[in-house]
What does this fold into?
Amino acid sequence: MSRHHVVLVPGFFGFGSLGALTYFVGVRHTLIESFAADSLDVNVVEVPTLPTASIRHRAARVRETLAALAEAEPGPIHIVGHSTGGLDARLAIAPTASLPTPRKFRHHERLRTLVTVCTPHFGTPLASFFGSAAGSPLLRGLSWLLVSGLKHGQFPVRLGLRLGGWFTRADDALGFQPTLIDDFFREVIADFSAERRAELIAFIEGISADQSLVFQLTPAGCDLLNAGTADPDSLRYGSVVCRARKPRTADLLTLTRDPYTRTMHVLYALLHRIAGFSRDERLPEPVPAQRDVLERAFGKYPRPSWSDGIVPTLSQVWGEVIHASDADHLDVVGHYGSTRAGLRSSDWLPSRSGFDDAAFDALWRSVAHFIGEEARRPAILHRRNVGVERTELEPASARAPASNLHAERVTAVEQARQALKEVRVGPASQRSPRSSPKAPALRPGDRGADVN
It folds into this structure.
């Protein structure tokens, strides 16, 4: 039997590797172990994508990878996309998609599964903010400053590197938890050669030059993508769906003394709040098979305000829900603070989700089991995927009464201001004595669930 190929596609700000810093931490290792336990010979590769370029350009990179792989080796192909990588993959394999690359992928019959992990199939309110008049200059301005410093500021760069290295060693001595900053200095900056500098400049310039992706991740942008992608009907779709713990003002009092962790938790609280501005009519209701899995995993039907801190939970549902878990957007690709030998990682988004090694293994074993289950079946030429009818329904917004139009005029900036106010003083539900009772905590067995 020919060996199978699994293609990993990174998401927004994604990279295969930057220096020794990797996007998918421990994912390849866990998948290969799981496939080996099922006696399945699998080759795992990653797509070198563009950080914030348009989905069309990112999808071209995916198509080029698939074409090269198909020409080099026989065997079925499976795709796993995290975050925006799931949208890139969907567009890359659409037979009718016109992409900016001369490479053609002509082996759609070899595609067997596509798994999306925390992918914004129906958009995210965060894109509406960062694509606004206030949000877009933040990304462009920060990118310009960083590139200018790296290109021209020899002394400030060296001084910054020395200070950064000193602070990294100091917070280790004080017992602070590893963070994104620690990872960056150890894996990217420690050996800041001319080659490493050029690599970092190219990555940041890619962000500054093309931010088309931001608009395309709005609910309106994803609605257009869903209307224009004709998915191969021989492919089996699965999705991993997550929700992150809702931040609380009291969290800042119980967090570590590490100022970086405190600052990042405030940022997480803002992101989580803005991501929660989803409207019911923008998120098609899951079909019964999808809904059952979500209710078993979370103990109740997800609210529109639930998210993984970046993407609304209900926006992540596509095809069969093969796993649902309490995790933030970056936990699922290994950035949750693992201390395992050989697979150590930092908690890039300190959400206090409780995600750990056991939860990570369970999630990626579910993905491997889904792929392995399909690998052992005869290829199906025509299938109707679970929940495909969700994109065939008229949007509820088209049927909304005129009285609801005022809500449409709430700008992304106003939403961000409201989120910042709530981070400072706490949500109204926490301040009011008449607040509704909190949802019961999930039982240990309910923290994550898969249907395999």
